[in-house]
Specification:
Low-confidence stretches: 1-24, 76-131, 348-374, 451-491, 503-564
CATH class of the largest domain: Alpha Beta
Distance between the termini: 32 Å
CATH architecture of the largest domain: Alpha-Beta Complex
InterPro entries: Kinase-like_dom_sf
Shape: globular
Number of domains: 3
Helix content: 25-40%
CATH topology of the largest domain: Aminoglycoside 3'-phosphotransferase, Chain: A, domain 2
Number of strands: 16
Length: 564
């Protein structure tokens, strides 16, 4: 968010996500963060007290923080990139900090002075100015993120090269936390839109979490990173339901319930969730016992917070909101990006034969995710989940146990996300909270707490058109035992997809494809491809037109209705 005004779109959503991608024309918020003071702080923490100019580029400017690149020109004879040197040595004062304890409890030195070897030169910097080198400054005014420098230092020791290299920091000077980083090159995975890059990101996060879990006991806790255990989640559910009752319910009902309709909030959302608290308690207890060792949970893990470097390695950033506890919870947000790639691959969000799951075209993709208990994972979602689980160390148990723990974490993750929104709003003084985020998270929580099946079990059978309630294989499939029907009633999945995209030749597959997709994506907007493939009148209704919306009428039934 650009300032501290209360939001109308949830933070951390695509399009509103903090990123180190260039933001042309963005200005340093000098009224909130003194620019001269920032330059004056950078000079003495670098070897040789170089001249500092800039910012050369502002990546992010918010009411509570800013990120920008500054040019550094070392004086003649000063240490240059590539030289040796350590923090607190070479005659520079180092302040001991027990909170930054290293391996086996050894006292580390607070990194107020950067070794020249960690100041990137033009060849490795994301930005360069002539022969100068560039450093990146992040400054924040939120006390709840004051632990971030110590966490970054720990991550840098545990997983070097996979997180930004922290050069120097200063905690809460003048009410602000400052961190100086070596810049990094690369393209964000969000921009790449490449399933392979998302899979690599999942593996990288698993490797980081495994490395942190392998640190000496207490190392992560010593950073001050807040703890969120699975057994804390039921109390978090209580807190977000209290907030929804006192604040959000009225907001969702404003303008004739516009916001509530936008996120599919049922009138009885709050009591229905409260009634499922016992399920949340049972799953939280099971996750606590099976969710693996304590490690870091990124909290905001998505494709816009990672880059693929020139050498192909993946680097993950924006750890300021991280917590410690169950690392499996990190996967939830990443699967939204994976779903978006699957949806694009099927023509479901853009291009010919477009079909969108949102009631409004301007909703971020995170809010379009067709969450429902039992919804099948797409190809990229499965690949991301499996890569993540396979890359976790042996401490997370055998494959079956990991899969079960992952299902539990995904079922409970919306509760944690809703509570993170509550805490975020409190920190910024937003009296109304974040109603859109609360609606999104609580609707997801209701759906995920609604059953006992694994989230990865498909809601339709092995073939398109088969009901999940019918365990028999469709008669048109090999070994079929179901009631004999015409082949048109059970088209292959590829035929149904082709019908919706408009690339198929058979017209009969489109109505069944519509019914099937209606079960999974309800509601769904039908595009021109489906219209060309289905000139019939489904369910005796009007002819399908571009923009028509499919509404389910119950188990196995659907009708098309005109879009106003």
């Amino acid at each position: 968010m650009a300032d501290a005004a209360e939001p109308t779109v949830a933070p951390g959503s695509p399009g509103g996500t903090a990123s180190l991608a260039a933001a042309d024309g963005m200005a340093w918020p000098d009224d909130r963060f003194d620019l001269a003071g920032a330059r004056a702080w950078i000079r003495p923490v670098l070897p040789g007290t170089p001249a500092v100019t800039g910012p050369t580029r502002v990546y992010q400017a918010k009411g509570w923080g800013a990120t920008a690149a500054f040019a550094v020109a070392p004086p003649v004879g000063a240490a240059t990139p590539g030289d040796g040197g350590q923090y607190g040595r070479d005659g520079q004062d180092g302040e001991e900090s027990p909170s930054a304890a290293g391996p086996r409890g050894a006292t580390a030195v607070r990194r107020r002075h950067a070794p020249a070897s960690q100041v990137a030169d033009r060849d490795t910097a994301a930005d360069g100015v002539g022969s100068e080198v560039v450093v990146v400054l992040k400054v924040a005014a939120l006390p709840r993120f004051a632990y971030a420098p110590r966490l970054y230092a720990l991550l840098g020791r545990a997983a070097p090269g996979r997180v930004p290299a922290l050069l120097a920091w200063d905690e809460r000077t003048g009410g602000q936390t400052r961190m100086l980083f070596r810049p990094f090159a690369g393209e964000t995975i969000e921009r790449r839109r490449d399933p392979a890059a998302l899979v690599a990101l999942a593996r990288t996060v698993a490797a980081i979490q495994g490395a942190v879990a392998a640190l000496p006991a207490g190392a992560l806790a010593a950073t001050g990173t807040p703890s969120v255990l699975p057994t804390d989640l039921p109390a978090m559910l209580d807190a977000v339901l209290d907030e929804a009752t006192s604040k959000h319910r009225a907001t969702w009902a404003e303008d004739d319930g516009a916001l509530g309709r936008r996120f599919g909030v049922p009138d009885d959302l709050i009591p229905r969730l409260a009634a499922r608290r016992s399920q949340a308690v049972a799953w939280a207890d099971e996750l606590a016992a099976a969710g693996g060792p304590e490690t870091v949970d990124h909290v905001d893990l998505h494709a816009g917070n990672a880059v693929v470097g020139p050498d192909g390695t993946t680097l993950v950033y924006d750890w300021e909101e991280a917590t410690r506890g169950c690392g499996l919870l990190s996967l939830d947000r990443l699967l939204v990006d994976a779903w978006a790639l699957d949806a694009r691959a099927l023509g479901a969000t853009e291009g010919a034969g477009r079909a969108t799951t949102a009631a409004d075209d301007d909703l971020p993709e995170a809010f379009n995710h067709p969450e429902a208990n039992g919804r099948p994972l797409g190809a990229t979602e499965r690949a991301v989940r499996d890569a993540y689980l396979d890359a976790l160390p042996a401490a997370w148990g055998p494959a079956a146990a990991r899969r079960r723990a992952c299902d539990l974490a995904l079922a409970l993750a919306p509760i944690k996300a809703a509570h993170e929104g509550l805490r975020y709003a409190e920190a910024l003084g937003w009296s109304r909270g974040i109603p859109p985020l609360a609606a999104f998270c609580l609707v997801r929580a209701l759906r995920r707490l609604g059953g006992t099946r694994a989230l990865t079990r498909p809601p339709i059978g092995p073939r398109t058109g088969q009901s999940e309630a019918d365990p028999r294989v469709p008669p048109c499939a090999e070994g079929g035992t179901g009631r004999a029907k015409e082949g048109r009633d059970h088209p292959a999945a590829s035929a149904a997809i082709a019908a919706v995209r408009g690339s198929g030749t058979a017209r009969d597959g489109a109505p069944v494809a519509g019914v099937t997709l209606g079960r999974v994506f309800k509601p769904i907007r039908v595009g021109s491809g489906a219209r060309r493939a289905a000139p019939l009148r489904p369910s005796g209704g009007p002819r399908v037109a571009v923009g028509d919306r499919l509404r389910t009428t119950g188990e196995g039934g659907a009708t098309f209705e005109d879009t106003p």
